[in-house]
Amino acid sequence: MPHITLEYSANLEEGVDIQALCEHLRAEAATIETFPMPGLRVRALKAEHYSIADGNPKHAFIDICVRLRAGRPMEVKRDATQRLFDAAKAFLAPVLAKRSLALSLEMRDIDPDLSPKTGTIRDHLGND
């Protein structure tokens, strides 16, 4: 963990390199000590259908959801939230300067008793 999911309005695809934003957020998350690198997952989901504010189709949004296993202290989560949000804002600064864009981020705890996990990624790290 964590899992970082970006939901974004389809009208951003021409002006934002979404894959590069995913990589930018993954790289920032990898610098956060409490986030184990093998558990990092960043994905983006395009919203084809949306309506924002007054309905003007020029408005856009990116909503970032960070899910991680419960148990980290609030100050650690608050710091991680701010670092990821600042990284997204820095990456998107040129877009924010020239168009209508709503950017948000929310961090959520996952109850480990209700979220079984398995995987072999750690077994394959560095094997390329």
Mind summarizing the main beta sheet?
Answer: 4 strands, mixed
- Helix fraction? 25-40%
What is the distance, rounded to the nearest whole angstrom, between the alpha carbons of the first and last residues?
Answer: 22 Å
Label the overall shape. Answer: globular
Description:
The chain is an alpha/beta fold. Helix content is 33%, strand content 27%. The chain is built from 3 helices and 4 strands. The chain has helices at 18-30, 74-98, 121-124; strands spanning 3-9, 41-47, 60-69, 101-110. The chain has a 4-stranded mixed β-sheet with strand order 2-1-3-4, with helices on one face. Strand 3 (60-69), helix 2 and strand 4 form a beta-alpha-beta unit. The mean pLDDT is 93.
Note the main attributes of this structure:
single chain, 128 residues, alpha/beta, four-stranded mixed sheet, 3 helices, 4 strands
Compose a concise summary of this entry.
With 128 residues, this protein is of the alpha/beta class. The chain is built from three helices and four strands.
Summarize the SSE layout with pairings.
Blueprint: E1 3-9, H1 18-30, E2 41-47, E3 60-69, H2 74-98, E4 101-110, H3 121-124
Parallel strand pairs: 1-2, 3-4
Antiparallel strand pairs: 1-3
